[in-house]
Amino acid sequence: MAGAEALDTAFRDATRVRAGAIVTVQSALFQSLNGRLARLALKHRVPVLSSESGFAEAGGLMNYGDDIDQAWRRAAVQVDRILKGASPADLPVEQPTKFQLVINLKTARTLWLMIPSALLLRADQIIE
Fold it and tell me: What is the CA radius of gyration of the chain?
């Protein structure tokens, strides 16, 4: 079982054991299933925090992760260096330096969650 079917099963299991919340790791699978993940979270009334950008915009509760635009720009710089002759082995490993917190208040209200004002103040974007 893979992909979307595994996600359905995971939410049924989370509901059965009364999980308080779900936190996803960054992956191409979760990125491609952002909308489905958000819909399942609402259907099963389980708060989900994702590191994937776009999750909150897709209807999820919140996402917190590296700034994807900055990551693409940094990747382009690395590719440029390689195309100009740099050896990939000589390039430094880079870690994200900018992270974004996006909170979907509409989803929070649907899940009957109160988001602390201190967290709202730290958010880069709030979806009403």
Answer: 17
- Would you kindly state where each structural domain of the chain is located, as residue ranges? 4-67+99-127
Question: Domain 4-67+99-127 classified CATH 2.60.40.10?
Answer: no
Strand 99-104 relative to strand 62-66, pairing: antiparallel
For the chain, the maximum distance between any two Cα atoms, rounded to a whole number of angstroms, is: 55
pLDDT at position 2 is 66
Could you report the per-residue pLDDT of 44-91, keeping only the tens digit for each? 999 999 988 888 999 999 999 888 788 888 889 999 999 999 999 999
Other Cβ atoms closer than 10 A to 27? 12
Name beta bridge partners: 100: 65
d(C-alpha 75, C-alpha 80), whole Å:
9
CA 11 centroid distance within chain: 17
Query: What predicted TM-score, i.e. pTM, was given to this entire model?
Result: 0.80
